[in-house]
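Quick log. Single chain, no ligands specified.
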Amino acid sequence: RHHRRRCGRDSRVRRARRTRDTAHVVAHAPTAFARARSARAHRTRRARVGGRRDMSAYSLNHWVVSSDDDDDEHGGAGGADADAQQQHAQLFTAALLAAGQRAAIWSDCKDFVDTRARSPPAKIYEALKTSGAATCSVAARAFLEEHFETGPRDRRTTPELVDWREEPNVALRCGGEKARAFTRHVHDLWKILARLDADDYVDEESPVQESDGDCESGAGALPQARTTSSRIKLPYPAVVPGERFRETYYWDTYWIVLGLLTSEMPATALGVTNNLLYMVTTYGFVPNGARVYYLNRSQPPLLTSCVAAVYEATRDGTWLRQALPLLVQEYSYLMRSERVITVRDAETGENHQLSRYFANTTRPRPESYREDVEVARLATRKCDNPIAKVELKRKIYRHIASAAESGFDFSSRWFRDGKGLESIRTCDIIPSDLNGFMLRVELQISALAREALAIMGPGESGYAERVYLKHLVAKFEAAGQARRRAIHAVLWDDAAARWRDVAFESRPGELVTEVVRDRSALSFASKSPFTSDYTPLWCGAADPNSEQAYRVVESLKTSGLVTANGVATSLNETGQQWDWPNAWAPTSHMIIEGIQAYAPREENYAKELAHAWLRTSHSVWTNTGYMHEKYDVRVGHDGVGGGGEYVPQRGFGWTNGVTLRLLDLYGFPDDDIVHGPSTPTESPPKESPASAKTAPATS
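-> predicted structure:
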């Protein structure tokens, strides 16, 4: 009886806490169980007061992940501001998303989940159960028209960007009128892309419908208003990518910050960086974007780079010292056990810790519900076992969301067959670019902590802070050295002279938090080179001015990715937007500045690549009047990039940032330059023999 009571108590504790460290839970079982019991009783009391099942921070996490057996993998959402949006998160159930698809009001699923609700969540949830929307498209349309607005709100208020001016120095330095007009236009776009979150919340023109007993006692107007929008409210004006992407996005923000600093707008750059820091304070990490449905995944970790860039421009030491603990907090999230793969190296006896993308969901993405359901249907159509089919769909949904977390959504680098989404396996790949980003995070935190120590000075008080900063310097310098060894041992392909993604086979019943593989069990994930293979150069995986750095540049020159119109993302023509023939601003920028920083003798080649990008973006702007999300590098085309699951977007935040940055570094290309760094091509070149390797080379 004693054994059964003890086992039953431990089981209840694990269900209540959903923690990864079982030993810690058992050691603190009485306290943990008491806290869980108290929280459960509190939620029950709240539900009784409101006459409904309220969503607490714990139940938000329960929704953010996908199912009961994923509870221990939630993204860490919580806190006061999480409570403010949790009621709206309750709406994103499969039933409501299916009703939205059935009604066919919005051609883009994202438009639906970005649309404000006219009614409180509890009223919508109850009405849905009796509406008939689950089986009838007419009823679904009537239900949505009653409880939701007609579509996402357009910008109503132009935020005041206090540091914006008519013509920054980057425009004044342009020699010709054509270049100056182009630069001024890109600079002017910051005002168009600026957003205030207040636009998406309740105002006098659109009051929220009340329902008896819906709000808790003492709740003010603001928390009630915020439940009607999926947007995460941020404290400072945001600069968004544009069009479909009407909210802050994580990794886009870094190139937006670079562009703002080039436009001499440090206050605005500081604000958009503070918005990311605010989300770390609120949720423990930076989500994919500032929407509650993005709380189950992040994006490439560039917050540290944003902080470093803003600090370099402002030299605000007090702000840096406040930001550092938040950078460490995000790093802890990025190093969670389900995000780390241990690779055993038999040659050296070392266990390498490498990162992977891992979204905390096994359901369709709300913003792409229709597309994800169709991919899962196609991928499982030959599976006859209903239980196996459900499990396979869950895996596919996680792989899809993890690819979205990578920013490369979608690319053949994630496909087992290199052709279609049905073979996606993102979580079974150790990406070269992600581990480069993690190396950059570790090196930058160490450098920023050292800078903070220097700012304090020997005579300044704050013994505890000084000890903490010294600890950060030592810890992250060691972490960076270990990461660099791991990248070289596992991801470096000496024959191809570049870093490459490696794949491993998942095992049935294996815990996602305990994935360990021998180095010999890994294989290169794809035959084609990708621009992501060269990201580690920008991140510091090679020493400056080293033989390895110059070999990487030579590899790029012979890869087939470089064309007269820009650097294509891959050589695979799959119809996905992160494949041939598209060139993207972030990957182009990282390659160019990686060459500039680590292979200085190839500075002229970096300039040629920069001018190819500027020439293409200017040409397309001249023909269309817009800056675009991506560009087509083929000759004989209009230059507007295509492919993917949504129509090509215009605006565009990171394109503007990279364009201004390259104009500042290299100037506008001369009119008499008509040839880029390589011969133009209509179709992707064949990969070199070195690219066809299927196993890592011994370094």
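Confidence is low (pLDDT under 50) at residues 13-82, 202-227, 671-676, 688-699.
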